[in-house]
Amino acid sequence: MLLTLIPVWQLIVIPGIVAGFFNKRLRYAVLSGLTGVTISWLIYMISSLALRNTYTILEQIGELMVGSGFGWLIFLLILIIGLLMGALGGGIGYSISILLTPYLEQRIRKTDNSTN
Amino acid sequence: MKSENKRGLIDLSLFVVITVLILTIFSVPFLGLPSLGNLLMPGNGVWNVPGEVPSAERLKIEGLRDEVSVIRDEWGVPHIYANYEDDMFFAQGYCHAQDRLFQMDMLRRQVRGKLSEILGKDLLSTDKFMLATGMETWAINTVNILQEMQSNGSINLIPKIERYVDGINYYIDTHQNQLPLEYYLIGFKPTEWTTIDSMCIVQLMAMDLTWNYNDLYRYINLEALGPTYYNETFGLPLPYQIPICPNYGSFGEIPMGSGLKDSSKSEITNAISSFLHAIEKIDYQRQFTEERELQGSNNWVIDGAKSSTGYPILCNDMHLSWTMPGIWYEQQLVAEDTGFNVYGFQIPGLPLIAVGHNQFVGWGFTNTGYDVLDWYYFNTDGDNKYIYNNTPTDFTYRTYKINVKGQGTLDFTVRQTVQGPVMSDVIGDFGLSDTLGDIIISSKWTANNYFYTLLAANGFCRAENRADFDNASQYWTTLAQNIVYGDTDNNIAIRPTGKVPIRALNSPGNGTLPFNGSSAEGEWIGYIDILTGLPSTLNPSQHYLASANQVVAGPGYTKYHLQSEYADGYRARRINELLNESTNISVEDMKLIQTDINSTAARAFIPTLIDVIKYEYGTSPPPEIADVLSELEDWGYIMSKDLVAPTIYRKWRDYFMEFTFNDEFTKYNATGAPQVVVLEKLMKEDEGSHWFDNVSTVGIETRNETMLLALNATINWLTGFYHSGDPSSWKWGIIHKIYFPHLTGLAPLSKGPYPGNGEGFTINPAGANIRDAQHIRYAQHGASERMILDFSNLNRSLSVIPSGERGLSNSKHYSDQLEQLFLQGKYHFQYYSNTPVNFPTNSIESTIYFLPR
To answer: Which of B116, B582, B652, B653 could hold B714 in an S-S bridge, CB 3.0 to 4.6 Å?
Structure first.
């Protein structure tokens, strides 16, 4: 959620990557990335709706893009994008961990051997 | 490679590709909007639009002398209480930016030719046009001269404006990442505000209120119709006028004008026609070419002899284009050090108060229609010279640099004649090939000179009596206004005020037609002295004064030519009728007058129509006529959205105008139409007028026949439009709607359309164009504010605006006054006499404290 303070929304993939990296299985990696980003965005959006009446603006954007009364669709679209970014980030993180695991294990064995 | 690694690589590639695809889709512009990612994703765009003003906030400001309290009431109106004026102006600037930053930004960009900088090359021609008018140049020149005057001690104004500008810039600097929605939709950020920007907004108002092409249209029509027919339709003075200043006699029964004897030249007519056709393509100029009616307003004041309070009551509603947010911003400004205490309306981007009151005096504006703009045609002598006073003369030049989004900086040069900018140079950009030959068209306008309007406003705000107010009035140069006045000493007054040129004797048309610049026609030899040369009235025996853009003075004023156009006079007739007859008038009565929708024009036309119907059809009219007759006979001329008769009247009037004048106008290639009151006079006093005959038919149509033809056409049209032959379904509010468009034109940010009362001629105006059934044009112009000042107790004064105080579309104050007050004919109190100590607690919505750092 801290990344919402930086106006580069593309960086939201990073939390997903981090979450996915530390998961042993793909489905949990995707799930943890998805959940993390979605929940943080949901908290941010709901608080903004409450404090700044942002839903009125979403309604206006919805009317511009689709038609009257589609603010909920914009809200949903944003959540889905966050969900996707988190999930994809989780997948990326997991894939990176799969690729790096053999090298990391090798390094750990070397370190153990040298210690012994 | 192990299978796990291979699998990992494939997964990674897939995830990365999909991720990049989605990021790309949401990072590129979409449907004319900036990238959806930048607009919609949390932490960006719409999520950074400010919410409501915090209920309590303390801001430490560098350079502030002492604490300032800004209390916002339940309508979000800021009441600024400062110990020092400098601080007060800082807070005013901050509030304007906090509430209306985008609106201010767009106003200055219009004048300064900076629309294409944010909106692209489609607006380049508009930018060039606006720069060519010279408004920005003279705003800069005026700032320079005011700074000189400040330096030599002859005025004390510039530091106040600069503090105001500081307040705006403080807000901009501290909110670069919390901008109104419009900035995110368009994709730009506000730049620093300057004093020149504020002066440019004054110039824009001058354009809205005094710029027109009517001299050129009159020339076309004089050429087309000839002097006799021209004078019958466009001659002055208009009939049935009640002058604003009653001390110069009344017109009574008057013939149409004595006539223009000048004949026009066809080669000039062609050049002018070409010029006008190009101008008509410019979006922002269409308001001056399509309707060609003077932007109007109402104001009036009664003295203690007529009021229920024993003190004056002053009312003002200025008629301007409706926008979201509205043009006016309400505020109260209080400074202890000077006793400054003013409540009123101002345009965001300008300091001080334009219209309102202090503890002693109050004032309001309507447009005078003074002729402050002339057009000149010149022959050229090559590209660099033009003929002036029969002598080849070098052009002078002004150059500008225009930043165009996506195209860099372009150079733009304006040629100048001795009279003013060559406006015909900019029409080529609107797709018109060079059909003017060696003729150029140049404008001369009082806004192309130094203007001291803010000096006048400064004086009005501080005036304690009529003498003070008069002293300030002499600085009211551009945007000539009928300034109505009242004070706590029971004085009432009006002076149609502004800088009006004196044209050389024997100037052809005396300002109503374009001049032959090559022959040095139409030279301006001076300006009318505002205090001694213009008409004015103080404490009239009739105990009231009223202006609704009608003629300023009766035949007793013979000093100078003042107006080349003014309103038909229907609103003025109604206001005079109501005030003349009444005594013991209260504030509540004034509310009813300001929202009156009784149509004087309908009362002028409909009784005659009823008589004609009965005369022609006797006791057995056809059923469709009988139904319409019944509606009209039962009508009290109230233009209510729930009634049927307004629809019949209004559409019939359009047809009556069309059938009376269009045949000749088409035959002779004239343009536009006479004002409706001309038709009223013909109908009432010249039944046998040739205008009623349709020249395209063999027979000779009479007045009655034309009126009945119009009625039949009306019935057919309304039956088609409402899909019903039953007049009871022809409700006015179905076809007549009022609309409040957002500045960008975006429908989701606009308000309405609402079924609307009134018409263009009612005191509470809302003029829609209902000529074309496929393109009914909503009323988008009317009262831009309403104000009632009670001089017996200024704390009981009332006001309202047809929008809300804030220009942020997510704010509860975006349209609250429109929806909860204006549309119901309601008002709110001004809390004028309150202080931070005794401000009603349940009316305080928020308080900002500005504290010195």
So the answer is: B652
